[in-house]
Amino acid sequence: MPARTQELPIRADNSSAAASPIAGTSKCLPSHMPGETFWQTSRHHLHDHRSSEELPSHSDIVIIGAGYAGVATAYHLVKDHPSLNKSITILEARGACSGATGRNGGHARPDFYGHIPTYMDRAGAEAGAEIAEFEIRNLRALKKTIEQEKIDCDFTLTRSIDVWCNADSASKAKAVYDRMTAEGLEYMEDVAFYTGNEVEGICGVKDAKACASFTAGTMWPYKFIMRLVELIVDAGVNLHTHTPATSVSPDGEGGFIIDTPRGKMHANKVVYANNAYVSGILPQYKKNIVPCKGICCRITVPEGVTAPLLNNSYINRTEDNVLSYLIPRADGSIIVGGAAAIFKKHEDQWYDNVDDSVLIDSAKDYYNNYMQRTYRGWENTAAKIDQIWTGVMGYSYDSNPHIGAVPGEKDQYILAGFNGHGMPVIWLSAKELAQMIVNDIPFEKTTMPRLFQTSQFRIDRALNGKPEDGDILGSGKFAATKP
Ligand SMILES: Cc1cc2nc3c(=O)[nH]c(=O)nc-3n(C[C@H](O)[C@H](O)[C@H](O)COP(=O)(O)OP(=O)(O)OC[C@H]3O[C@@H](n4cnc5c(N)ncnc54)[C@H](O)[C@@H]3O)c2cc1C
């Protein structure tokens, strides 16, 4: 596919970063004024940072997007390759970590058996299992880095409890568990699955019919990323916030010209880490990575009230199969979100929608009294929503991220499309992508799961497929896959 770029509509504005958000007016760029979120209540001093007053005229590597993917890529470039000696610039449309990463549920939960059986059906047992194994390695690597760099981000290594309150769903989940254990996968030894009368007593969720547990992590994602930002800025990476890339075009000599409202800059290599918004610059991804909104909130109990301690993270599914992810925090508050089944039919409220300044109307009341109606012993706690917000995810047609060299292009890389599931995926993906960039190696030489590789096949399958055959809006029954 030839290099195709697209001019994005922007509100050009050259005044100071903090005072003048110059993010988008279209679906291609983040909204100007994201709603408040608990995680960003206390802004980091580098949130609106610009490394220099003027945009540099050239950088060897330009990374578009300062969320988890962009910042982790820069971190691995400078920390894993200390003799790299290349200039690196990150362009960020809004403040640093103001996208999905700064607005999510803080749950770093590898997929042991959720989507893995589907990936196995589509591409074989090995291709599916390697995703679970990669995500488990990610969690361990994340923990190691947080400890080594002494990052204060409330990281916990915990057990994640999966709960099913619908009897039919519970027996289907048990069948999946049995299938996965029968595959002989070593990592499944970490999973404990329970059915029977004592399930409610094990997980604490009222009317639970089945539950399972395995190792996962919880954290304060904004604090994690902003500490990495500090480290990379100290290491010489240029960060330019409130500087959206509006187009990327070839310079005719193997490099690229990147347009921004603050002027043009030249790059030798470009990394697209702008997740939900990637098709704004790479339109071939329009049907592969679609901006979709999610909702999340923080629940607190009044001062003086002691609510039962939850010391596990959760995925809860109600009797009517509404799914919520939940993490407890050491301050006694709860972060919980999801409820997609409640708003799914209101497509205008979430699908192909980048407006994280407004809540999802059909779901905004769902978490009122959530703790009281869900957990044993919380009935009289008066727990209530303290803050509620939305965020924009990059949903992918086949549920897998797109990582690697942009098909048909040289020196252009993509790391995007993480759905509601970037936390246990991005860390090592960025590390491996950094290897590709530095050592000029193909995707196949990395340790990333094969199904993560971006490819013309995947691009075309979504472009030519119907939305109702893909995973985002429909059945996921698109034609048989190949990596
Ligand atoms: C409500 C909610 C809850 C979630 N909960 C969880 C969870 O508990 N666990 C989990 O694993 N995942 C969760 N996710 C998903 C997770 O947050 C994402 O998968 C992950 O953060 C993606 O990281 P990213 O860096 O790719 O994207 P982002 O964090 O969105 O970063 C992309 C950045 O690119 C910038 N940008 C966009 N366009 C341009 C441009 N043209 N020029 C310059 N910059 C640009 C954006 O402003 C943004 O800062 C949740 C997401 C949401 C919204």
UniProtKB/TrEMBL annotation:
It comes from the Eukaryota. It holds the Pfam family DAO. Gene3D superfamilies: D-Amino Acid Oxidase, subunit A, domain 2, FAD/NAD(P)-binding domain. One of its GO terms (cellular component) is cytoplasm. Residues 60-436 form the FAD dependent oxidoreductase domain. Residues 1-23 are annotated as: Disordered. InterPro entries: FAD-dep_OxRdtase, FAD/NAD-bd_sf. This is FAD dependent oxidoreductase domain-containing protein. It comes from Penicillium diatomitis.
